[in-house]
């Protein structure tokens, strides 16, 4: 999920063409070039918002729906039909994450060599086919095999989407767009419940197939059809942006080059500097803790609602308001966070809200259904506060091509191991209390809180050292022109 341009020579050519038209000051260092027309920049950003984002948001929404709709299918008879006893359902969930974690980085490397519009469309098409196949499985081993194949195709869609989005926006423009991206996943959760309700009400038993099979078949078919149109909808790299004219394309590449220069450049790989950066490992653990909550809620909310006393069909409907509120919370909090350019307090807010939800569910004995239902709002809302802001926070504080590429891949790729934990801690024998599930999830959420505090104080300490001149000696070293965020002039965002 690197933010560097895939064809830097082409990018620099366009930048040179653009700055050549700026006048005599074009020879000044890029941080002193202020001749890009603000009206032109606004027009370009608006065009990117209208042309780059919508297809990517649709792609992620469908892929996320294909990943988590097993939770809706489970309560519509799948567990009984293919004998999901004991931990069988948990294994069917976790198997997806094995290729998911292993193949995220290789997928992005492949995408750098191909047109994103072709590669991402092919992956989405594979997701649709695998999802339809789940509607025809007859045994538990068949389900596990198809879920594994689904994970292979799913692996590249998330990081590939973020990678492509990041290519079009400056450092502090990206977080807002990431919040929209995450919100498309929330919409998938709400839409999945609504669609499952409609299918369960109208197609249960049609042509001899129970409702759970139709959930997979119809949703997979929709994904497959949309995937066939995606090569014409998705954009490719910025230097190939056909929706921009020559002037706009040159300006886009120039503003991205200027932004990278002001964010500190690191165009050479430095193993020691990358692997010794505490921010990367703190950010990965922070993400790991909250990913567990997100997957736990997406996989198990339908089952939890049934165990609260709702019918299977009613549970599908009751999940919709949870995701609708989470979408509003996600967009609102991320917008405010961007406005004030602050991350720490908002991540802690999400951790606090989620902790309240887990405490309610751990102490649910004797509580009314309304209180337990409120707890689910807390959990989903917390997940979609913390996840996008934690990703934005690390990306904002990692300067340079190579370190950003590694940091993004590590945080998203390895952090997604939280999905493996979520798949295995909600045990059938513990229903409806799920003490292990709620207890472990609370512990991981609190770990996210601890990592958030650690990140904050680490960044504060580093900013103080830079301000006092303790890092100035780096400007005299052999890598003075390639320091990334270690550059004394790079101020970390809190």
Task: Identify the CATH architecture of the largest domain.
Answer: Up-down Bundle
Q: Tally of extended strands?
A: 0
> What structural class do helix, strand and pairing data support?
mainly alpha
Instruction: Report strand %.
Output: under 5%
- Principal-axes geometry comes out as globular
Average pLDDT over all residues: 82
Please give the count of helices: 20
Helix amount, in percent?
over 70%
Number of domains: 2
Distance between the termini: 22 Å
Detail the poorly predicted runs: 1-34
What's the main sheet like?
none
Radius of gyration: 23 Å
CATH fold type of the largest domain: Growth Hormone, Chain: A
N to C succession of SSEs = HHHHHHHHHHHHHHHHHHHH
CATH H-level superfamily of the largest domain: MFS general substrate transporter like domains
Under the CATH scheme, which class of the largest domain?
Mainly Alpha
Protein name: Major facilitator superfamily (MFS) profile domain-containing protein
Membrane topology: Multi-pass membrane protein
Region (Disordered): 471-494
Keywords: Membrane, Transmembrane, Transmembrane helix, Transport
Description of the molecule:
This protein has 494 residues and is an all-alpha fold. The protein has 2 domains: 53-234, MFS general substrate transporter like domains (Growth Hormone, Chain: A, Up-down Bundle); 267-466 and 478-494, MFS general substrate transporter like domains (Growth Hormone, Chain: A). It is built from 20 helices and no strands. The chain has helices spanning 8-20, 38-51, 53-68, 70-81, 88-94, 97-113, 116-134, 140-154, 157-166, 174-202, 211-233, 246-262, 271-275, 278-307, 312-340, 344-362, 369-396, 401-415, 418-424, 435-467. α7 (116-134) runs antiparallel to α8 (140-154), α10 packs antiparallel against α17 (369-396) and α16 runs antiparallel to α20. It starts with 7 loop residues before the first helix and ends in a 27-residue tail after the last helix. Mean pLDDT is 82; it is low at 1-34. It is found in: Membrane.
């Amino acid at each position: 999920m690197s933010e560097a341009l895939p064809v830097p020579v082409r990018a620099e050519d366009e930048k040179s063409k653009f700055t050549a038209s700026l006048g005599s000051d074009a020879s000044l260092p890029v941080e002193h070039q202020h001749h890009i027309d603000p009206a032109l920049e606004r027009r370009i950003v608006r065009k990117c918002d209208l042309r780059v984002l919508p297809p990517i948001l649709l792609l992620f929404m469908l892929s996320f729906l294909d990943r988590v709709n097993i939770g809706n299918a489970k309560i519509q008879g799948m567990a009984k039909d293919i004998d999901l006893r004991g931990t069988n359902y948990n294994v069917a969930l976790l198997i997806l994450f094995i290729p998911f974690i292993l193949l995220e980085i290789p997928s992005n490397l492949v995408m750098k060599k191909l047109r994103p519009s072709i590669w991402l469309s092919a992956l989405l098409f594979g997701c649709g086919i695998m999802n339809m196949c789940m509607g025809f499985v007859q045994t538990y081993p068949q389900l596990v095999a198809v879920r594994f194949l689904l994970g292979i195709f799913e692996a590249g869609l998330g990081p590939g989407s973020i990678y492509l989005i990041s290519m079009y926006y400056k450092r502090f423009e990206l977080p807002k767009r990431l919040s929209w991206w995450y919100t498309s996943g929330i919409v998938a959760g709400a839409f999945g419940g609504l669609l499952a309700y409609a299918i369960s009400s109208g197609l249960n038993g049609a042509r001899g197939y129970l409702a759970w099979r139709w959930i997979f078949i119809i949703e997979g078919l929709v994904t497959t059809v949309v995937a066939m149109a995606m090569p014409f909808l998705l954009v490719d790299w910025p230097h190939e942006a056909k929706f921009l004219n020559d002037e706009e394309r040159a300006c886009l590449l120039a503003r991205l080059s200027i932004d990278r220069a002001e964010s500190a450049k690191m165009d050479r790989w430095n193993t020691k500097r990358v692997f010794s950066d505490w921010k990367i490992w703190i950010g990965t653990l922070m993400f790991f803790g909250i990913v567990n909550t997100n997957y736990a809620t997406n996989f198990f909310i339908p089952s939890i609602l049934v165990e609260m006393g709702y019918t299977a069909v009613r549970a599908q409907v009751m999940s919709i308001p949870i995701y609708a509120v989470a979408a509003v919370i996600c967009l609102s909090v991320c917008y405010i966070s961007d406005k004030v350019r602050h991350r720490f307090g908002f991540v802690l807010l999400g951790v606090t809200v989620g902790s309240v939800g887990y405490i309610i569910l751990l102490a649910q004995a004797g509580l009314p259904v309304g209180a337990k239902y409120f707890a689910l709002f807390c959990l989903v809302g917390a997940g979609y506060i913390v996840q996008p802001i934690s990703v934005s926070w690390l990306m904002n504080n990692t300067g340079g091509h190579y370190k950003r590429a590694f940091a993004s891949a590590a945080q998203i790729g390895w952090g997604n191991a939280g999905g493996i934990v979520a798949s295995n801690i909600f045990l059938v024998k513990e229903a409806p209390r799920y003490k292990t599930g709620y207890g472990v999830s609370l512990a991981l959420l609190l770990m996210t809180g601890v990592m958030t505090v650690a990140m904050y104080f680490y960044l504060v300490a580093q900013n103080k050292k830079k301000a006092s001149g303790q890092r100035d000696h780096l400007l005299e070293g052999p890598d003075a022109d390639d320091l990334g965020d270690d550059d004394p002039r790079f101020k970390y965002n809190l």
